[in-house]
């Protein structure tokens, strides 16, 4: 059974991103938005099961984006992700 609070929260997020597509592109880049929304719903359900708030933390959103961008990565810890840029390596933590 789906939780009504999760449905409302995810629906509001989707509506926000549909009304502000540049914000979505800034956040997820060239990822498929449907897959992103699916992962958001899964994380929200996981938070509820663990007794946490259904609203995502900043770290959870970053981890979702990293998971979608780098699906072959064996670990999911934010502190182990290094982004290569023209300015040098950036550790995302």
Q: Care to describe what's here?
A:
There is one protein chain. It is globular and about 45 Å long. It has helices spanning 4-19, 21-28, 33-49, 58-69; strands at 82-85, 88-91. The chain has one domain (4-91). A two-stranded antiparallel sheet has the order 1-2. A hairpin with a 2-residue loop joins β1 and β2 (88-91). The N and C termini lie far apart (35 Å). By secondary structure, the protein is mainly α.
Give the SSE map.
Elements: H1 4-19, H2 21-28, H3 33-49, H4 58-69, E1 82-85, E2 88-91
Antiparallel strand pairs: 1-2
Helix pairs in contact: 1-2, 1-3, 3-4
Descriptive tags:
single chain, 93 residues, mainly alpha, two-stranded antiparallel sheet
Strand order of the largest sheet: 1-2
How many domains would you count in the coordinates? 1
Distance between the termini: 35 Å
What is the number of helices?
4
> What's the total number of strands?
2
Helical content class: 55-70%
What is the arithmetic mean of pLDDT? Answer: 81
Low-confidence stretches: none
Radius of gyration: 14 Å
Quaternary structure annotation: single chain
- Helix and strand content put the structural class at mainly alpha
Q: Which descriptor suits the 3D outline?
A: globular
